[in-house]
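User: I'm putting together a small comparison set for a docking exercise, and I want a reference complex before I start. The sequence is below, and the ligand is zinc ion. Could you produce the 3D structure with the ligand included, as structure tokens?
Assistant: Of course. I'll restate your input first, then give the structure tokens for the complex.
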Amino acid sequence: MHQPARAQVGGGLASARPEGPYRSFTSSSIPMLPRTDRALASRQTCMAAVFHGAGQPLQLTQFEIPSVAAGEAIARIECCTLCGSDLHTVAGTRNESVPSILGHEILGTIQDVGDPPLRDVQGHPLGPGDRVTWSTAISCRQCDRCRSGLPQKCRELAKYGHEVAEGRCALSGGLAEYLLLRTGTMAVQVDPAIPDEVACPANCATATVAAAYRAAGEIAGRRVLILGAGLLGLTAAAFAKSHGASHTVVCDSNADRLCLATEFGADCAVEWHADLAELRMRLTRACENAAFDLIVELSGSPDAVEAACELGDIGAQVILVGTVMKSRPVRLDPERIVRNWLCVRGVHNYAPEDLLTAVEFLARYHGRFPFAKVVEESYLLSDVNQAIESAVNNRPVRVAIRPLK
Ligand SMILES: [Zn+2]
Ligand SMILES: [Zn+2]
């Protein structure tokens, strides 16, 4: 597997990882129950790592695998990568109901389907052996929000990796061996050529980037500035480059991430500075350009949000994606927005079409950009606490968790 990278990379625009209580966690493995057969027919139960509250280690717990009902499916989890939001949850900087099974960047294989079976977003019935990812959001597809193109804001919304682990739908997170795909799940089949670890973030980072660019419209020929070089920023750079942006510029304060950004297609990687005049100077010096047509803010830093709104040229679009935690209010110059015809737009989560775009993008470009390289460590589910500890302390772009073979 990938060798762990030990570079300390704190302080980056995209590295607002939690610290604090999690540092005191034990790093010992959790003993797994003996396992002799992966065939679902012989499996009535499976293991899942359960989150009981911030500052506590996850506890490996046995769950019953439910029998599938109409429109559902059971997926065997092949791999799950830890997202920044999972780390915020375990650190207590993000609230989650407990007990819950975290993990939503999941790749699975269908083991069993109901009658009728769950269908993928293109309408094909799924069957045993299909390799799939699925939208984090489970939507009703009928309410006003679903019908208006925002199923991720469904009035009946449920989310994989964010639900209380109780009842027959308890298996709803990726830090487990199996998961119940509920009716209404938007599943997408995944090209077998995409490595597991590369496919996992498709339903979070990649699909969110696809949603941001869908909100922005045409990319070809535009000068694109990406603020934040975490996995979303790196993916955004690769996406812009492969869709014909005339300039793709990535800004972050973390030198390691900036190096990665150039590997992900950035024409220029510029060290962030919170002072706007200094930042403009750096942008001008590095890429002879400090005005952009499309600015994608992925760091969540309020300073970066303010800069994003100042660096747009006439008619620019500013897409805000990164601010998913409480932030200080930002200063905006409304006259500048008006006179420059700026469009400032928020994008949160994504619709099924964005997941489809994401999977197609990874299928086409996973070999051109080093997506595999950013999943720097891989752990077994029994070592999930070590995985989280490493993700918090060493800050690799992604850490992968796999069930026992
Ligand atoms: Zn996520
Ligand atoms: Zn709905």
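DSSP finds eleven helices and 16 strands in the chain. Residues 89 and 221 are 39 Å apart (CA to CA).
User: Thanks, that's exactly what I needed.
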